[in-house]
Write a structure and sequence with these properties.
This protein is of the alpha+beta class and 456 residues long. The chain has a single domain, classed as Outer membrane efflux proteins (OEP) (Up-down Bundle), CATH 1.20.1600.10. The chain is 70% helix and 13% strand. It contains eleven helices and eight strands. Strand 3 and strand 4 form a beta hairpin. Helix 4 packs antiparallel against helix 5 and helix 4 runs antiparallel to helix 10. It is elongated and about 145 Å long.
């Protein structure tokens, strides 16, 4: 009995760590999962589905309408005359009708083209929604990385301050320092420990935000990203702009003008507005209706010489020449929509150019800052080591050590944040230039091909 209990307890301790551990994800994994689970993206997908349905509706007008009809009419009484039956007791009528109506100027074809354009607009709106979601995921992911790095720095800071506290205690015991130095070291250590606890809570919070953004309902952990070199700006920009020969900023703005889903979508809106004017003007033209009917009728009592079956065709010409100014107002409305679309496109183009410039300058600024922060961390590290040795030999006091440590911690935090900000700035620049989704899909396709190759 005891042996069984012992085995059960061992199995419990073996299984618990694996079931309680959080699943680890790369940034590409989070991108893929987010694109699959995002409700915002699903809404855009439904918009695209509605656009495809509207195309089918616009296509339906090119096909004739077929219908069956039947009716039963009962009268109060039958009426006769010397010449025959005037009114039967009841009449049964049924038949089949095929009907096709079209305008002489081809409005239906214009409406069909507009429906196809709206499908393309739906595709680019979906692309834009995906890129916005990817940017949100990247931001949440790098916030997790920053909080994790901040915790590492806080832990290292606690270890350094513990050593300094111990060294201060030793000096106080031998009489080389006053108790004030020990108290200052204890206070700094307590502050560092509180900062470490705060960083642990920040990790939990940022992971929760990331999981909610991606759509994961269980604990997660993230893998460290491959850090791009901050002095590799030219290759990054060439990748985005496609080795353009113009000025760097002009190349990026050209890429945005050609690839940004918002710009392409607004250009489609402009085309649709132009087609809508043509569609509205088509209402000035008459409509032609062709109709074929098979008709059966039965009266009770039956009439003499009754024709109970008929097949006939109808050609109907409809031209409303006065409708109270409705058509003129509709054309004017469509022209106003066209002008509005032109203004929106111009405004959005200017805004996106500014966005690209801001993203580009931000990338350059962070890249330059990282160089200085790396030097600052190097100097701060050497400074702390020197001051620490001087303190051990009585050549520096506790305040000098704490100041040197504070400088080192601040420099390490700023460098870590800048390095992750640089990675995010690359993604943001790709988004601004309109190539983010394409680059991620290319990366993921290459990763899948590599996995398949290794599996073989």
């Amino acid at each position: 009995m005891r042996s069984r209990l012992y085995i059960s307890i061992c199995l419990l301790f073996i299984v618990i760590p694996f079931t309680a551990s959080a699943q680890e994800y790369t940034l590409d994994d989070l991108f893929r999962i987010s694109l699959e689970r995002s409700e915002t993206i699903k809404i855009s997908e439904e918009d695209l589905a509605l656009a495809r349905i509207n195309k089918k509706k616009s296509l339906a007008v090119f096909l004739p309408t077929m219908s069956l009809f039947a009716d039963h009419t009962r009268y109060t009484e039958s009426k006769n005359s010397p010449f025959g039956l005037l009114q039967p007791d009841y009449t049964n009528q049924w038949g089949f009708r095929i009907e096709q109506t079209f305008s002489l100027v081809g409005r239906e074809l214009t409406a069909y083209k507009m429906a196809k354009d709206k499908i393309n607009k739906g595709r680019y709106s979906l692309q834009s929604a995906k890129e916005v979601r990817l940017l949100e995921v990247a931001n949440a992911y790098y916030n997790v990385m920053k909080s994790r790095k901040a915790h590492e720095i806080a832990s290292a800071n606690v270890e350094r301050l513990i050593k300094h506290r111990n060294a201060s205690r030793t000096r106080v015991e031998v009489g080389d320092a006053t108790k004030t130095a020990l108290l200052r070291a204890e206070a700094e250590l307590a502050g560092a420990r509180s900062e470490m606890i705060r960083s642990e809570n920040t990790i939990l919070l940022t992971k929760s935000v990331l999981a909610n953004t991606v759509g994961i309902d269980h604990k997660l952990d993230v893998k460290e990203p491959v850090i791009s070199s901050h002095d590799n700006n030219l290759s990054v920009i060439n990748e985005i702009s496609g080795n353009c020969t113009k000025d760097v900023l002009a190349c990026l703005q050209d890429s945005a003008g050609n690839n940004r889903a918002e710009i392409i979508s607004l250009n489609i809106d402009l085309d649709v507005a132009e087609k809508e004017i043509k569609y509205r003007k088509g209402s000035y033209w008459p409509e032609l209706t062709l109709e074929g009917v098979y008709f059966r009728e039965k009266n009770e009592p039956a009439r003499s010489f009754e024709l109970d079956e008929r097949i006939y065709g109808v050609v109907r010409f409809d031209f409303p020449f006065f409708e109270g100014g409705l058509r003129r107002a509709e054309v004017a409305e469509s022209k106003a929509k066209l002008r509005q679309a032109e203004h929106i496109l111009a405004d959005s183009s200017n805004s996106i150019n500014v966005e690209v410039e801001e993203a580009y300058l931000n990338l350059k600024t962070i890249s330059s800052i990282i160089v200085q922060l790396e030097a600052e961390v190097t100097y701060a590290t050497e400074n702390f080591r020197s001051v620490e040795k001087q303190f051990q030999h009585g050549l520096a006091d506790s305040i000098d050590v704490i100041d040197a440590n504070t400088l080192l911690v601040t420099a390490e935090r700023e460098l870590a944040n800048a390095q992750y900000d640089y990675q995010y700035a690359i993604i943001n620049l790709k988004r601004s230039a309109g190539v983010l989704l394409k680059s991620i899909e290319t990366t993921q396709s290459a990763g899948i091909s590599k996995i398949n190759k290794e599996a073989r």
